């Protein structure tokens, strides 16, 4: 079970860094940058659809929003900007020893 969670965390971490580097690229459309910003603001905001005070449901809506929001934003990216972001993400993540471990 922990190996599945570790693999899921690696995939999510990779997509978050790809989105980060994609938003820094000047070729990225403004709509993608705004969507990523709104997603980040919602996740950090104390105002939620389901309050975080509810033990599991509060975090589940945030995780669901991330699971659908990040891939949707990455699909709106131009191919060349997405390829640059993937390369920058892999270079960044390869520096960390815990990321290289399987």
Kindly name the structural category: mainly alpha
State the major sheet.
none
How far apart the termini lie comes to 15 Å
Flag low-confidence runs. Answer: none
Instruction: Count the beta strands.
Output: 0
What overall form do the CA principal axes indicate?
Answer: flat
| Number of separate domains | 1
Q: Could you tell me the radius of gyration in angstroms?
A: 15 Å
Share of helix, binned? over 70%
* SSE order, one letter for each helix or strand: HHHHH
Total of helices: 5
Average pLDDT metric: 84
Membrane topology: Multi-pass membrane protein
Subcellular location: Endomembrane system
Keywords: Membrane, Transmembrane, Transmembrane helix
Describe the structure.
This protein is an all-alpha fold. The longest helix has 23 residues, at 2-24. It has one domain (2-100). The model has no long low-confidence stretch (mean pLDDT 84). The chain contains five helices and no strands. The protein is flat and about 40 Å long. Helix 1 crosses helix 3, helix 1 packs across helix 4 and helix 2 runs antiparallel to helix 3.
